[in-house]
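Session log. Operator J.P. requested a structure for one protein chain; no other inputs attached. Running the standard single-chain path with C-alpha cell output.
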Amino acid sequence: MNPISGVERAQVLTEALPYIRQYNGKTVVVKYGGNAMVNARLKQQVMEDIVLLWLIGVKVVLVHGGGPEISELMEKLGKKPEFVDGLRVTDRETADIAQMVLAGKVGKTLVNLLQMNGGRAVGISGMDGRLIEAKVKDPRLGYVGEITEVNTDPVRDLLDKGYIPVVSTLGCDAEGNTYNINGDTAAARIAGALGAERMILMTDTPGILRDKDDPATLIPEVTVEEAANLRAEGIVSGGMIPKVECCVEAIRRGVNKVIIMDGRVPHAILTELLTDEGAGTMVTGGAE
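Structure written below.
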C-alpha cells in the first residue's frame, strides 16, 4: 500500500471543508453498538471519528447500548438471559445488572477512550437529571421501559460546556424504578428532542438492502413514505423493522436526516459526514 502524500492529504482536507462548515455548531447523535462496539480496532476508530468531529465544532452526543455485556454478567451471576420479541426480560435484579453494566463499565470505558483520544467527555445515564422518564412497556418484560418524556437539559448543559455526552440507555419513573431502554429508541427520542441535524445508527449491516443477502443492493436513500412501502413489500423485515421505525420516529420528531450505517466499516462516520461518498442508507422526511 503506497503512503498518501502531503498533497493528497491536503486535497482530502480541502474536499471536506464544505462539510465541516455544514456541521460546525450542529448536533449529531450517534447510536453506538453492534460489532463496532466489541471489536477493539473498530472501537478505536469510532472514538477517533467522534473526537475529530468534536474538534471541528460538531456537537456530538454518543448514545450506547451494551446487550452482550449485560448477558455476560448475568451468566456470571447465574442468571439466564431471556428474550421476548427480541427484548430482554428484565426483573429487578436484571435492571440492577443493566445499570451496573451500562452506566458503569461500558459508559465509563467509552468516556475514558474518548479522553485518551483527545476529547472531553462525561458519562451520564437516562436516570441523571431525569433525562429519560419511562413506564412499563409490557408486563411480560418486567422493567423494560417505554419512554414517556425526554428532558434534554443535562445533555444541553454538557454540550454548552464543550463536553461530549456519553449516554447510557436507562430510564426512571417517579417511584424510583430503573428501566432498561432500547438503545435505538432512546437515541431517536434524544435526537428529536435536541433537534439534531443528523442521527447515525451504527449496525452490523450495510444499511437497507433490497436483497438482504447482497450488499450490492444497498438503497442509499429513502423517504419516510418509501420506508413504509419497503416494509409493506417485505424488503424491510426482521431486525431492520425496529431500526427503520426508530429512524422514522426521529424524523417525525424533528431530526433532519438519519443514517443507518455499517459500524464494521473503518471510519464510516467520517465517510458519511465529511465526504461525497457517504455510507449506509439515509432516511429523510421527503421533499425539502
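Operator note: The longest strand covers residues 27-32.
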